[in-house]
Each structure stands twice: as C-alpha cells, then as structure tokens.
Amino acid sequence: MKNKLPPIATLVFGACLTMSAAWAAPASHVTMVTPDEIKWADLPLIPGAKVAVLEGQMDKKGPITARIKLPADSKVAAHWHPGVERVTVLSGTFNYGMGDKLDPEKTSPLGPGSLIVMPPKMHHFGWTKEETVIQINVAGPWGITYVNPADDPRKKK
C-alpha cells in the first residue's frame, strides 16, 4: 500500500518549503552589535528610561529591534501600539499587566528570558522595582498611544 498525502497536506508541505527557502535567503547586509557598542539615548515616552535602537528606525517602515532600559521604580502607564509588539526581558524583572490603568496587583513578574507577544492596540502597562532592560521587536513605524492622554509624559512639559 502506497503512502499518499492528502491534497491539503501536500499544499501545506509545499508552502512550508517555500517559506523556509525565503527565510534561508541571504540577507542584504548583516547587523552585529556588541554590548560595548550600544548607544543609549533618553526616551521621553517613559520618564527616566533610555533607548538604544539596534536595527531600523523607529519612525520608518521596516523591522525594528530596540532595547529599553527602565530605571528602578519605573511605571509605564497603560498604553497601546499600532502593530504587533514582541518584548523580551533581558535583565531585571518587568512586571507586566493588561488593561486600561496601571494596577500593580494585576501584573505578572517576568524575569530574563521571558517573552510577551501582543496584538496591535492591546492595552498594557508595566513597572519595575530594579533596573530592567527589555528588547522590543516590531515592524515600523513604531508608536505609543497612552490610554489616558493625561499619562503621556510628552504632554507634561
């Protein structure tokens, strides 16, 4: 008896091969950044925070990889982003929650290696007890909209 894949399985298998070939295609250039090369700048969107953009430009279309250094006792008010956001905790503990208002009681502590993947426009917030570094991977342009406009530090100047 011959093993024959059903037509849908053949289609799925073919699509996977096509996608893996595209992913394996050589990059037009390589970006390598070592920790001593990272240049931090103030991030006015979060008081006291620093940002380092490792790939892309925050206001341009395309892939973006950036690190955000949050000082101890940071509070990031409820906000959302226009696209999918992937957050990886690199150091410290990021206390993450979902909702329309920062509520420390409704957060989960996430340590190094933890990953959060959020759909566009999902309301979320966070806070730290210690200095914490997170990495975001998004498709640009990247933006942040605070759920309560009064929480937006850009409007408090």
Automatic annotation (TrEMBL):
SUPFAM superfamilies: RmlC-like cupins (SSF51182)
Keyword Mitochondrion: no
PROSITE patterns: PROKAR_LIPOPROTEIN
All copies of domain ChrR-like cupin, residue ranges: 31-100
Alphabetized UniProt keyword annotations: Signal
Signal sequence region: 1-24
A Pfam entry, by short name: Cupin_7
Keyword Signal among record annotations: yes
Name of this chain's protein: Cupin domain-containing protein
Annotated source species: Cupriavidus basilensis
Phylogenetic placement of the source organism: Bacteria, Pseudomonadati, Pseudomonadota, Betaproteobacteria, Burkholderiales
